[in-house]
């Protein structure tokens, strides 16, 4: 097993091709970790996530997570990044977030069919994407940042008035082309604002941990 790098309350386990969060990580670090980065793996399940009860930031970009994922109740979670996964059902995901992540402020879904922009569907335009934003903000009114930009006051007003009518209905025949890297070859998946990831967030108490296989 690769040695995970951990700084103050932060654990990074990136690019290890795992399908599940290794149980050894949750056993050793779960109660201490505030930020978890599991990007560039092959995750299809978040089964061990309930063993990280103090998470504030969770980065799950470039995995294989689908509509079947189970999000445990994590009251402290503030930031969730799910870019470039296999999420298609926006309503289902938002319901899970509403019930289990009550304090979420930062959400990014770029590169999923649930997020209708040109990165996931070449036929979508800015109007489609804006309707999606209104609907997400309507469902999650406490969001401060969605995908690549902050939520502005004008969007909040529009979402409160019209958001419930902006529900996205996706044709069932659409095939997710997430395995095609050409569309995001030059796209930088760094949607979260700098205030979330500052130097202070990554300094601190934990040293580099070594896990013996």
TrEMBL record:
PANTHER family: LEUCINE-RICH MELANOCYTE DIFFERENTIATION-ASSOCIATED PROTEIN
Protein name: U2A'/phosphoprotein 32 family A C-terminal domain-containing protein
């Amino acid at each position: 097993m690769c040695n995970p790098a951990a700084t103050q309350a932060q654990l990074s386990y990136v690019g290890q091709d795992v399908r599940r969060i290794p149980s050894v990580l949750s056993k050793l670090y779960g109660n201490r970790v505030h930020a978890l980065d599991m990007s560039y793996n092959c995750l299809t399940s978040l089964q061990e996530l309930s063993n990280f009860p103090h998470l504030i930031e969770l980065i799950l970009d470039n995995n294989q997570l689908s509509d079947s994922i189970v999000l445990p109740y994590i009251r402290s979670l503030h930031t969730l990044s799910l870019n470039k996964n296999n999420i298609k059902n926006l309503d289902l995901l938002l319901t899970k977030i509403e019930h289990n992540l009550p304090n979420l402020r930062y959400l990014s879904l770029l590169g999923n069919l649930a997020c209708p922009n040109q990165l996931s569907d070449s036929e979508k335009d800015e109007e489609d994407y804006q309707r999606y934003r209104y609907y997400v903000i309507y469902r999650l009114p406490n969001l401060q940042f969605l995908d690549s930009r902050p939520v502005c006051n004008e969007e909040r007003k529009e979402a409160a008035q019209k958001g419930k009518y902006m529900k996205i209905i996706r044709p069932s025949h659409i095939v997710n082309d997430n395995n095609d890297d050409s569309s995001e070859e030059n796209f930088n998946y760094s949607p979260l604002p700098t205030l979330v990831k500052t130097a202070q967030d990554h300094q601190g108490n934990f040293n580099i941990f070594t896990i013996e296989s």
